[in-house]
């Protein structure tokens, strides 16, 4: 057995249904690793939900949600990512696909996407609006507004010029991508006011609360489209479980050396388990923490101290307790110190970071 994502299909889909029912105009986001599910599978769910539009991260991902290519062809071949089971059974999404990463000149895949009438391209600089208008009249575009994120987008004093430069393009909307924390209704309102005075079109927003969305919808008489990934796909926590299996177990004598790095067993370490799941699956992948509060800072420091002492808590647990790594995870296996109760064939729960998880298999029950 491998590292498997078990999905309670009924609960997962009931959650999706309720998110969609409560958010008219929702645009599901399916990008990157597909939040652990893969893009083809999420595209199938969007079709099931009966929605006409989904958002992907990059132009390369259009083919993945369309079903016209698999991960292998699009991302290039990487042996450990050999065709993931399940993708072939999902028919492609036929509705509109928004590419969230702004278009830039010289990207052949993004250029080709402009010719697809089902693709909506994001433009975040005046010069790109002009270039696309010249090269691809009739292309469908969204104009991106610079927010306090300071990521991509045009400033309000550029909006009029952007609309003028977009002559011949179909402006499908304005996009406003806000930070995850803080109050941003005021900012969204100011930016939307400036954008809509330059051109009337739907607003595509991200990371606004339900209350803020309502306020925007009351304030502006255009469609407000909310892009959602995490809450839609991962909100039903209890429906999703990553499990790995114990492939082998060895009794280890005191201070015996183990693993690639030949570290000695600690005083309390008598049993070594070899379990499925490793770096290829994203086991123990961490993003640099934003450490937003004192508790998170303390946790980060504590983890650093433990790792300096060569004791790293693993994401695997047995009997409700997290287990320690005996050494850093391998490509497709991990070495853990386990209590005597753990046996070959046992299934261990694994805590995975959904945006970096690549399970070997997904089982929808
Ligand atoms: C990824 C992304 C989203 C989805 O974010 P979640 O936090 O997963 O809901 C929304 N909008 C934009 C522009 C994004 O890039």
UniProtKB/TrEMBL annotation:
SUPFAM superfamilies: PLP-binding barrel. GO terms for molecular function: alanine racemase activity; pyridoxal phosphate binding. Keywords: Isomerase, Pyridoxal phosphate. Its cofactor is pyridoxal 5'-phosphate. One of its GO terms (cellular component) is cytosol. It holds the Pfam family Ala_racemase_N. One of its GO terms (biological process) is D-alanine biosynthetic process. The keyword Isomerase applies. The keyword Repressor does not apply. Residues 18-183 form the Alanine racemase N-terminal domain. This is Alanine racemase N-terminal domain-containing protein. It comes from Acidipropionibacterium acidipropionici.
């Amino acid at each position: 057995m491998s590292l498997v994502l078990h999905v309670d299909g009924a609960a997962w889909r009931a959650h999706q249904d309720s998110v969609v029912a409560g958010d008219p105009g929702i645009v599901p986001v399916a990008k990157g690793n597909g939040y652990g599910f893969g893009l083809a599978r999420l595209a199938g769910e969007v079709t099931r939900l009966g929605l006409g539009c989904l958002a992907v991260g990059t132009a390369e991902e259009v083919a993945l949600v369309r079903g016209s290519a698999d991960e292998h062809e699009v991302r290039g071949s990487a042996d450990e990512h050999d065709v993931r089971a399940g993708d072939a059974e999902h028919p492609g999404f036929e509705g509109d696909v928004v590419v969230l990463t702004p278009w830039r000149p010289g990207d052949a895949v993004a250029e080709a996407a402009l010719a697809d009438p089902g693709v909506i391209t994001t433009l975040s600089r005046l010069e790109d609006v002009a270039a696309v208008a010249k090269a691809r009249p009739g292309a469908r575009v969204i104009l991106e507004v610079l927010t306090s994120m300071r990521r991509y987008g045009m400033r309000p004093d550029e909006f009029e010029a952007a609309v003028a430069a977009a002559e011949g393009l179909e402006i499908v909307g304005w996009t406003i991508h806000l930070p995850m924390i803080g109050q941003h209704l005021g900012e969204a309102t100011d930016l939307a006011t400036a954008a809509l005075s330059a051109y009337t079109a739907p607003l595509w927003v991200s990371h606004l609360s339900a209350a803020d969305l309502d306020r925007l919808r009351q304030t502006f008489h255009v469609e407000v489209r909310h892009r959602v990934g995490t809450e839609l796909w991962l909100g039903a926590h209890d429906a999703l479980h990553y499990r790995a299996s114990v492939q082998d177990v060895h009794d280890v004598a005191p201070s015996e050396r183990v693993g690639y790095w030949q570290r000695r067993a600690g005083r309390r370490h008598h049993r070594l388990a070899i379990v499925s799941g490793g770096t290829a699956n994203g086991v123990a992948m961490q993003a640099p923490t934003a450490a937003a509060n004192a508790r998170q800072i303390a946790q980060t420091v504590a983890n650093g101290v433990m790792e300096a002492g060569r004791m790293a808590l693993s994401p695997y647990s047995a009997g409700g307790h997290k287990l320690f790594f005996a050494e850093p995870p391998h490509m497709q296996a991990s070495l853990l110190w386990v209590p005597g109760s753990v046996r070959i064939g046992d299934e261990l729960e694994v805590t995975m970071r959904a945006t970096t998880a690549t399970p070997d298999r997904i089982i929808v029950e």
